Amino acid sequence: MKRIGVGAAALLVLVGCPKDKPPPPDNPASSSAIADASREAAPAAPSIAKNANVILITIDCLRADMPWAGYPRDIAPNLTKLAQKSVMYTHAYSISSYTSMSLGGFLGGKMPSEMKRDGYFFSAYGKDNLMFPEVIQSAGIHTYSAHAHGYFGDSGFNQGFEKYELVPNLKWNNMTDENVTSQDLEPIAERLLGDPKNETDRFFAWFHFLDPHDMYVAHEGIDWGKTTRDLYDAEVTYTDKWIGKLLDFIAAKSWASRTILIVTADHGEAFGEHGQFRHGFELWEPLVRVPLFFVIPGVPPKKIDVPRSAIDMAPTILDLLSLEKDATFEGKSLVPEIMSKAQPEERDVIIDLPKTSDNDKRRALVHGHQKIIEFGETKYPQVFDLDADPDEKKALFKGEIFDDLGKRLRDTDKALKEVPTTGCKEGCLWGTSKDGGT
After folding, report:
1. Sign of the C-alpha dihedral, residues 409, 411, 416, 417?
2. What is the dihedral of CA 318, 323, 328, 330, to 10 degrees?
3. C-beta separation of 117 from 107 below 8 A
4. What is the DSSP string of 247-297?
5. Into how many domains does the chain fold?
6. Which of 19, 46, 122, 305 is exposed most, by the fewest CB atoms within 10 A?
7. DSSP β-ladder status, 270-271 and 277-278
8. In this structure, are 203 and 115 located in the same domain?
């Protein structure tokens, strides 16, 4: 609306409002009608469709420092464009620091220490664990999933999925991943999503892209340099290309307008921080900070800066599908804060790395911008102020912060219902053999 200048306003007062005709008194009925009309004209608050679908895209080893979070290289243009439309969590954490533990906890809605598993590094989870896709399937909603690593075949992650597929002809190497798979995984995703019954029925789909995982393979036409981080960036770019193709396919479907997209990672990746490369074994920030964003039709983009954990994903996805969470799932739905303009509450984040055949126990707690890491069963914990020391190089060993976080972590340790492993036990678990090793 155009503004009237001060001089023009004064002229209206002088010539447009005769003194002998005062303005009529307010009409209460008219005022009420105007107020009612104003309320009716106000835009409706965004809501989630009752017949919504959810597609979850997870990307192995995807660090939090992506282009939408300030990374200077445009290594993921398709995901960056999607992130700009999203409700984004800027301080999201994985449940653990490598795939077996982080995704087991994600699916089971618990810390991996609390789930029945065999105890080997590539842990298999027992069928008596309730996985959240089972809740979705029992509600009559179709469930689809596809993956690109041999571990996913025997992990127990297939529970609750109507259709669960692996990329064919995968090479197995328990030290690294030699396969390039995005170009094979994406067509499987299209085929599963393209099922004609999805035009009328509801579905939940989960696709895990693996190519940013080491070994870092060069791709024709993508060249960010020759360092390990350069090669990793090229793997992210290659994966982004195929995710972009999948996003185009989704956008063209009749059900796109009622479909929610979620993007996150199972864990991060290290490039020399604390002398570590790749992932697993520790709980430093580069290993456990991950992207997390939601694209919900009709919901405007915003950023949420409080720390949040992937433990909240099971109840969140169920809530997005208008389903009740099972009482055994420990997280809280993020939907209320996604949909609200209010400041989200602060909550502690727990990161859990149980002892396996190949690694010692680690556990961490994040409270606001403070973090405590517990190393093994007896090693003195280390506390960090992540605002002042984001690289976790100056551990605190005393003081009010140290005492407070120590109590929080001790209370967490007492509350967690740890479950003994079923396969790898005494003599197999890290540090329990006679020679003190694995």
Report:
1. positive
2. 40
3. no
4. HHHHHTSTTGGGEEEEEEES---EESGGG-EESSS---HHHHEE-EEEE-T
5. 2
6. 19
7. antiparallel
8. yes
Structure tokens belonging to residue 185: 């995984």
- What is the spatial order of strands in the sheet that 259-265 belongs to? 163-166, 142-147, 203-209, 53-59, 259-265, 292-295, 87-89, 302-304
Question: What's the domain range around 314?
Answer: 53-349
328's tokens: 């055994």
Over its length of 438 residues, how does the chain's per-residue pLDDT go in tens digits? 333 343 333 333 323 333 344 444 445 444 455 445 445 555 667 889 999 999 999 999 999 999 999 999 999 999 999 999 999 999 999 999 999 999 999 999 999 999 999 999 999 999 999 999 999 999 999 999 999 999 999 999 999 999 999 999 999 888 888 888 999 999 999 999 999 999 999 999 999 999 999 999 999 999 999 999 999 999 999 999 999 999 999 999 999 999 999 999 999 999 999 888 989 889 999 999 999 999 999 999 999 999 999 999 999 999 999 999 999 999 999 999 999 988 899 999 999 999 999 999 999 999 999 999 999 876 789 999 999 999 999 999 999 999 999 999 999 999 999 999 999 988 899 877 644 443
Rounded distance between C-alpha atoms, residue 252 and residue 257, angstroms? 10
Supply the CATH number for residue 143's domain. Answer: 3.40.720.10
| Tokens standing for residue 120 | 């080997």
Closest CA to 114 of 100, 104, 124: 104
Q: Rounded to the nearest 5°, which phi and psi values hold at 230?
A: -60, -45
d(C-alpha 208, C-alpha 83), whole Å:
18
CB 279 within 8 A of CB 267: yes
Q: Is residue 64 part of a domain?
A: yes
